[in-house]
Amino acid sequence: MRISVIGTGYVGLVTGTCLAHMGNNVTCMDVDEGKISGLRRGILPIYEPGLKELLDSNIQENRLHFTSDLQEAVAAGEFIFLTVGTPADGDGNADISSVLQVAAQLGDFIEDYCIVIVKSTVPVGTSARVAGKIQERLAARNATATVDVVSNPEFLKEGKAVSDFMNPDRIIIGVESEHARERMEALYAPFVRTGEGSVMFMDIPSAELTKYAANAMLATRISFMNEIAAICEATGANVDQVRAGIGSDDRIGRRFLFPGVGYGGSCFPKDVKALARTASDLGLQMKVLEAVDSVNVAQKKILVEKIKDHYKSDDLSGKTFAIWGLSFKPETDDVRESPAAVIIAGLLDAGAKIQAYDPVAIESFRQHFDLDIDYRDDMYDCLTGANAVLLVTEWHHFRRPDFSRVAELLQEPVIFDGRNQYEPQYADDRGFTYISIGRPPVLNSAG
Ligand SMILES: NC(=O)c1ccc[n+]([C@@H]2O[C@H](COP(=O)([O-])OP(=O)(O)OC[C@H]3O[C@@H](n4cnc5c(N)ncnc54)[C@H](O)[C@@H]3O)[C@@H](O)[C@H]2O)c1
Q1: What's domain 212-297's architecture?
Q2: What predicted TM-score, i.e. pTM, was given to this entire model?
Q3: Which of 17, 54, 140, 341 has the smallest C-beta neighbourhood within 10 Å, fewest atoms?
Q4: CB atoms within 10 A of CB 78
Q5: Is 232 a catalytic residue?
Q6: Ligand 1: residues within 6 Å at CB?
Q7: Where are the domains of the chain?
Q8: Are 373 and 347 spatial neighbours (Cβ–Cβ below 8 Å)?
Q9: CA 206 to chain centre
């Protein structure tokens, strides 16, 4: 099948590469010419495990092509995926201007029947607006091509994007025409052959809303657990035990029940806000989501508060903190809305100095945030001379550090663990003052 993908970011590049890997002929387009010329030479603009190997082999097999020319991409596709960004605007709405801009341009270039697939996360009603824009431009030049627009929101997780795309739990497709439905079923058939995942067809508004509802539900679990963690701290309960207790109820399940320093990334924060905005535009109020968002905004500052409590001062001048982890979660270099940025800004504001290490995200963090940070390229070197270490992103590298080396390098053996990676007793036995989220301090501590 001939496929074009417009917008070659985290979603577009994974989509294009995985579809090429199934034997399709894929053209990926992006307005960022630097990105495109790098990709032609096999240079990945993002860190995503497993993607480089697939990219190389499909470029070599001549199934995967890159262009910055939209007209060329349109001519190359009977299926045209829209995977451009939809960031939050200043009011929390999803900014769909890139989606609508591309839609209008499609109308300028489409010559034959094609299916335009809205994969970007967009508010209910956007796919209909995409169809309208295309029709407007087709009509303006008296073009006779017919176009079906379908909604196919993406559910991949950064860090596991390739396996999520190759083995999806479900593929949601909102569709109006029977022909488009058959073609979409054929396109995705190789991804659901084993029968573990399935293609679910529905109407277009329901597909658009399913994406927001899924992210909002997951974000709700996280904010809920962060509030439970606060109650644990106030009462002496242990959030690990509460989590295990409720997670064993199969109506609840074990996933997404981990308290921490709040959710970040390019999806949850903006999608929660955008869904709340959709509701308010309709004269409805999603009180739950407004609370989910405000709990999360506060949670991102929780380590800064714990540090100020520990040192019994709002003034942290003269202190240096080592930060382990800058990306918003492990196995990605994506730093959008990363809690690390809020924590570091809070500590700098209080007068502290920052040394930071991340296995892959230093460069993207440097580009995104103008913060006064002494970046280190080794996790232990990052600790040298610091008053304490903050574990912010739970990369595997930080799971079992050499605690005696950590203690030697730090000025004082103090860990602020924003991801509950260590057992309090284990850290205490090694002489650390160990402060985590929602877990009581060790009784009779020697530290
Ligand atoms: N990143 C994720 O984990 C994820 C998961 C599911 C859904 N989504 C959704 O998918 C969409 C894309 O997200 P992303 O993380 O891949 O974004 P991204 O910022 O990584 O990539 C978007 C790409 O679109 C390009 N672009 C912008 N305007 C363009 C235009 N007019 N023509 C061609 N290219 C253009 C940009 O240069 C960029 O390379 C968003 O709506 C997002 O909410 C993201």
Answers
A1: 3-Layer(aba) Sandwich (3.40)
A2: 0.96
A3: 140
A4: 15
A5: no
A6: 6-12, 29-32, 35, 83-86, 98, 101-102, 120-121, 154, 156, 158, 266-267
A7: 2-202, 212-297, 300-435
A8: no
A9: 22
